[in-house]
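hey m, so remember when u said the tokens were messed up on ur end? i reran from scratch. heres the input so u can diff it against urs
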Amino acid sequence: MGSALARPLHHPDMKTPGDRADGGVLIVNADDWGRDPRTTDMILDCVKTGAVSAASAMVFMEDSERAAAIALDRGINRGLHLNLTESFSAPGRHDRLVQRQRRLARYLRRHRFAPVVFHPGLANAFEYVVATQIDEYRRLYGADPDRLDGHHHMHLCANVLLRGLLPAGTQVRRSFSFQAGEKSVWNRLYRRFVDGVLQRRHRVTDYFFSLAPLEPAGRLDRVFMLARTFAIELETHPVNQDEYRFLAGGEIFRRVGDGQIASPFRPLLAQTSRRGRKSVNAS
């Protein structure tokens, strides 16, 4: 498999205490920070052990305000977890925002292929809901988000991607990475198209995987091996008990072996990946 992989990312700014000397990096990112107190607290437990590198923060949610205060106090690396599909749960929300987000959620959940079809009639609603969440992140965290991804990965839907609604130059989560044969040819071609669009405007890691499923064990072992050479983002949801035990209980450290979990995304912000993938790819 190694001979079929493209070259790793290299940049002098990549060397941090959490990075390997040869340029590989494993970033364990917890989604849904601020969704509710239980989710925030379970992520925080994993951050404290060093098993989670960073978190993706939801805004206009029940625990968004408290989560932002915790992140700022503890210096937790975070980005914006753009939410187009789950109802906002924070009190005092603007009716206009809620109504427009509900329209988007109905459309995106209507059919499995809805996210890949550009809807011109919802273009203004998408623009408003995305921009408003970026503004709210700025209010909560005192800075623009330098990293973005999406709840249910809807930051990659056609209306967001093709209209360029995510700020240029930011770190953006790419499509899931799969080995050749794991998905259909059309699926992989579409993912390659999405990543190509991303790479023209944004910075991305070499590969993107999910921590779940935890079995078979060989799947994660291959991910950890790739992280010795490549920049890998590993998505996790510690609110799920199996993932929480794996992270907070320290199993991830035993599995990573002599590799190290990177602390920030920040070193990756100085570089842009523009290379395609062959055997294992995000396309």
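this time it looks ok to me. Confidence is low (pLDDT under 50) at residues 1-21, 269-283. if urs says something different then somethings off w ur setup not the seq
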